[in-house]
Specification:
A hairpin with a 2-residue loop joins strand 2 and strand 3. This protein is α/β, with parallel strands linked by helices and about 240 residues long. It has a single domain, classed as Alpha-Beta Complex (Spore Coat Polysaccharide Biosynthesis Protein SpsA, Chain A). The longest helix has 12 residues. Helix content is about 25%, strand content about 30%. It has a seven-stranded mixed sheet with strand order 5-4-1-6-11-8-12, sandwiched between helices. Strands 2-3 form a two-stranded antiparallel ribbon. Strands 7-13 form a two-stranded antiparallel ribbon.
């Protein structure tokens, strides 16, 4: 490991599209094979052996997430919590957590999706490329929920395409980012910011790297995909 890295897991979403399945449960605590979905994400961080501290960015029903993970040392790293007093969006949630990060490099993950990726190799590739920002990409059969990401032969991100109504195979943003925390120096505290809509279009105008994985990918943001989780993620 070249240098210390800490992680932020975005775990504060409202999960409105899952209310039919989980009316009283935060999305990240959705049960999958007898354990909270967030356990699967944290277990993947543990397996990488990269982290000594992970910050959970919490908002909606924060007390339930905190109650579940406060003092939990079973993943091999310290867990702390950055609480949003009001919904701040993904970018605002990251900014709210950045103040608790001591490392220069920060990895950010969505707490409602699992990505099978070699995180250590992702970090190595980011450092080798010498860029300010990298993200994990995954090809999927139906990219219409996500929009498409285009990269060149060397992995440099060229552009994002907006979501389309038609089903189309393509490379998508898998929701894992690695960057120098100075990227957020200009973001105001307690401001509502969407990282994907408000920040990424400008970030990729500078050299940015897309790291492609072929591992499992599943987000549980809608009932249809949540219902796939028990079978698709069995054993994780």
């Amino acid at each position: 490991m070249v240098e210390k890295i800490e992680a932020v897991v975005l775990a504060g979403g409202l999960g409105t599209r899952l209310r039919s399945e989980l009316p009283e449960t935060p999305k990240v605590l959705a049960p999958v094979n007898g354990k909270p979905f967030l356990d699967i994400v944290l277990k993947s961080l543990c397996a990488s052996r990269l982290f000594q501290k992970v910050i959970l960015s919490v908002g909606y029903k924060a007390e339930m997430v905190i109650e579940n993970y406060r003092g939990d040392s079973s993943f091999g790293f310290d867990i702390d919590f950055a609480v949003e007093e009001k919904p701040l969006g993904t970018g605002g949630g990251i900014k709210n957590a950045i103040g608790m990060i001591e490392s220069r490099l920060v990895m950010v993950l969505n707490g409602d999706s699992f990505v099978g990726v070699d995180l250590a190799r992702f970090v190595e590739a980011h450092i080798e490329k010498g860029v300010l920002f990298s993200m994990v990409l995954r090809e999927v059969k139906n990219a219409n929920r996500y929009g498409l990401v285009s990269i060149d032969a060397g992995g440099a991100i060229e552009r994002f395409e907006e979501k389309k109504e038609v089903d189309e195979k393509g490379m998508i943003n898998a929701g894992i980012y690695l960057f120098d925390k100075k990227l957020f120096d200009g973001v105001e505290e307690n401001r509502v910011v969407s990282f994907e809509r408000d920040m990424l279009p400008d970030i990729i105008k500078k050299p940015a790297f897309g790291f492609v994985t072929n591992g499992k990918f599943l987000d549980i943001g809608i009932p249809e995909t949540y219902k796939l989780a028990e079978r698709y993620l069995k054993g994780l």
